[in-house]
Amino acid sequence: KAGVTQTPRYLIKTRGQQVTLSCSPISGHRSVSWYQQTPGQGLQFLFEYFSETQRNKGNFPGRFSGRQFSNSRSEMNVSTLELGDSALYLCASSLRGFEETQYFGPGTRLLVL
Amino acid sequence: AQSVTQLDSQVPVFEEAPVELRCNYSSSVSVYLFWYVQYPNQGLQLLLKYLSGSTLVKGINGFEAEFNKSQTSFHLRKPSVHISDTAEYFCAATGVGYGGSQGNLIFGKGTKLSVKP
Fold this sequence. Notes:
The structure holds two protein chains of two kinds. Chain A contains no helices and eleven strands. Chain A is mostly beta strands. Chain B has no helices and twelve strands. In chain B, strands 2, 5, 6, 10, 11 and 12 form a six-stranded mixed beta sheet that branches. A four-stranded antiparallel beta sheet of chain B has the order 3-9-8-7, with no helix packed on it. The radius of gyration of chain B is 14 Å and the shape is globular. The mean pLDDT of chain B is about 90.
């Protein structure tokens, strides 16, 4: 069974631009969660999608948004990029949610200049 | 706001020695607890989780953790570590009071375990 895949793996953007990251979950998994990892703030939960609906959301501004498609693939969008958005963005999938084992992708490393 | 505290940012230990990585969480009526490991340049991998039932939870790679409700702790232990256990370990919690219908998964800052020969 293929694991969680994230594209692209690396990305360089400039302040003010927007970016879209993609996550393909493990086949059959309906829950997809997104996380931001930075040296200063550590791992922070962004949001979780289940069956195309955002079910949970962390404490991030509205510039961070996401969506999930009918095949459970998910995208995350960050508009009006700021230098502080430079981070490793991780996606994880599970069958139904946090209480299940989450499988993480390798992440997308975003650098904002 | 609910929080997860990992008391040690770095833990150096010699190979074959025992290790304990400490984690404390905010009190909650109902809490789910997790330990994840992140090997260098890799994504996170679940080591073990506590949802309910037995307070001693066994995970992969010989790790175990004990849920202690009175001390709001969920410390991770391994009786004998190997060089390959060198990684960063994250404690996480979710549940009632952590936000959202199923919870906002809150992570600790991480503990870097360094196993020396």
